[in-house]
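Structure representation.

___
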Amino acid sequence: MRGIAALLGLLVIPSAQARSHVPDAAMNAVRTYSNALVAADCAGVYALSAVTRRHPETKESLCQGMKAWKEMGVYERLREPTSSLASGVYRMVVVPNSRISVDAGRPVIANGLYVAISGDSGRTWQVIDIACDQLPKWVQGLYPPYDGHPSLSLASVDRFDERN
């Protein structure tokens, strides 16, 4: 929760206007992406993925990873959006997520972010997953007003053992 609180504290953005309203279309895109990812629906993820559509050579490894996650029974929980930004025709919504799995009999929770981005005033949306190593660079490539705020460094992995 400290990470979310810190993220909320960074919403004063000089180059973009923070908005309290989260567009339904953005949340629908994130939900659709998340559901497709958990179901190992490669075509569904590909249709919404801002990164994979720009780099189709990554599609096969993404599809293999999703299949492995499905076999492991990975479940994903979306949390409340932490930011909704607008600048000209660009829109951006940040949605934290938790991917829950079991490794060696222990629950593992990987916390991350989805960033939904629109370059056409919110008519269409693409999704960037925190799994991308170049997340801030990708966000700026698709949402040019992004200046590093809000921070997109919420990702963490928590492993629990029987003592916890």
Remarks:
- Confidence is low (pLDDT under 50) at residues 1-19.
